[in-house]
Description:
- The radius of gyration is 18 Å and the shape is globular.
- Helix 7 (188-195) packs parallel to helix 8 (226-235).
- It is built from nine helices and twelve strands.
- It is α/β, with parallel strands linked by helices.
- The strands form three sheets. The protein has an eight-stranded parallel beta sheet with strand order 1-12-9-8-7-6-5-2.
- Mean pLDDT is 93; it is low at 250-260.
- It has one domain (9-285): Divalent-metal-dependent TIM barrel enzymes (TIM Barrel), CATH 3.20.20.150.
- It comes from Fontibacillus panacisegetis.
- Keywords: Isomerase.
- Residues 44-247 form the Xylose isomerase-like TIM barrel domain.
- GO terms for molecular function: isomerase activity.
Amino acid sequence: MSRQHPYLLSGLGDEAGQSLGEQIRAHLDLGWEEMELRSLQGEFLSDWDYGVFLGVCRDLAAAGLRVTVIDSRIANWSRPITAPFEQDEEELRILADRMHTLGSRNVRVMSYPNDGLPEDEWRDRVVERMHRLTELAAKNEIVLLHENCSGWGGESAENCLSLIQKINHPAFRLLFDTGNGIAYKYDAFQFLQQVWPYVEHVHIKDGMRKRSDTIYTLPGEGHSKVRECVKWLYDHDYRGILAIEPHLHLIPHLQQSGGGSDMSASYITYGRHFERWLADMFSSTEGGVFI
């Protein structure tokens, strides 16, 4: 199937609706064949009853949707560096088993927000935990994708590079989110220019700061330099998936959630806007038609 841009598109399903049916319908409406799984009715994949999980697998297969990435809670904003490590190990073990059933290879992780520790101790604990998680991932033939978000590795490009170089393993790579710089107060494009060789997946988000608040927008309408980021990725041979994470209704780390037809309609509008935006961006490239 030909496209007017060079990328397969995907998105975080629970931003289209809380139920699996809503998530599937939104992606089929968009004509996309990929979807990321994070939660159903607010429950993360590793917490689902196994029978529910098997039903999800059947429904996704029937819809012809592939699951690109599992978005976990491992080392995220809800689990500071002082939280018990065992909960992350257990979640990864459960996810590894379920990812093989789904045919997925990548799981999104972060790198532990601090909880009052000195900088050096925080860093050392993060590196030690990430080594152990990476070993477990490699044993199970899956890949951890570290997002430039909450945690030591998301504080700066320098930290991110240091972390990936200390882990030094193909089972530990990066997920770059274009919009996280707005919330965490750094220039995402500058961040990308330093870490791009390790990026294996991309989330598309845009926004702007208004006083002390982060306001999320359609892609290209905020201050995240989405165009510059996508162009840099293309020019540096990134041909992976671009996955939308609108944050217009569901923002998990702020405990903001949505539901109903407005949530789904907003997600679809965002996806279609992004498709048009990409087509316009690449209209003069290679005749504007991609396979």
